[in-house]
């Protein structure tokens, strides 16, 4: 991570407990974290906010899925996650990362670090 400022992560997750726990892990690791409960809220936030990394669940309520959110913001570093074992991810674009749920702290942070230097 940069020594000048913390990297900013927009964490988009509809499960409150996962969102809160993941935000705590990321903040403890030195990231600046903004959260959204779904793609619609994240899209509104991105109209005025800026993030270095978009970390989004794929399946969420609302009109904007994690897939649509990720592909609409492919100019950012994007990490997507899902707990759906049978889900196909052939839509992932070059430079995007996928992290299956449940993920652990070490794997999450290593994946974000890899994205940050890409």
Can you offer a commentary on this structure?
It is a single chain. The chain has 118 residues and is of the alpha/beta class. It has a domain at 1-58 and 71-94: Response regulator (Rossmann fold). The chain has four helices and five strands; from the N terminus they run E-H-E-H-E-H-E-E-H. A five-stranded parallel beta sheet has the order 2-1-3-4-5, sandwiched between helices. The model has no long low-confidence stretch (mean pLDDT 91).
Give the arrangement of secondary structure elements.
Layout lengths: L7 E5 L3 H13 L3 E5 L2 H8 L6 E5 L8 H7 L4 E6 L14 E4 L4 H13 L1
Parallel strand pairs: 1-2, 1-3, 3-4, 4-5
Q: Element order, helices and strands?
A: EHEHEHEEH
Mean pLDDT: 91
Choose one word for the global shape: globular
Give the strand line-up of the largest sheet: 2-1-3-4-5
The total of helices stands at: 4
The biggest beta sheet reads: 5 strands, parallel
Instruction: Provide the gyration radius in Å.
Output: 13 Å
Look up the CATH topology of one domain. Rossmann fold
Distance between the termini: 12 Å
Specify the CATH architecture of one domain.
3-Layer(aba) Sandwich
Strand content: 15-25%
Uncertain segments = none
Please bin the fraction of helical residues.
25-40%
Number of strands: 5
- CATH class category of one domain: Alpha Beta
Q: Supply the CATH superfamily name of one domain.
A: Response regulator
- Which structural class fits the helix and strand makeup? alpha/beta
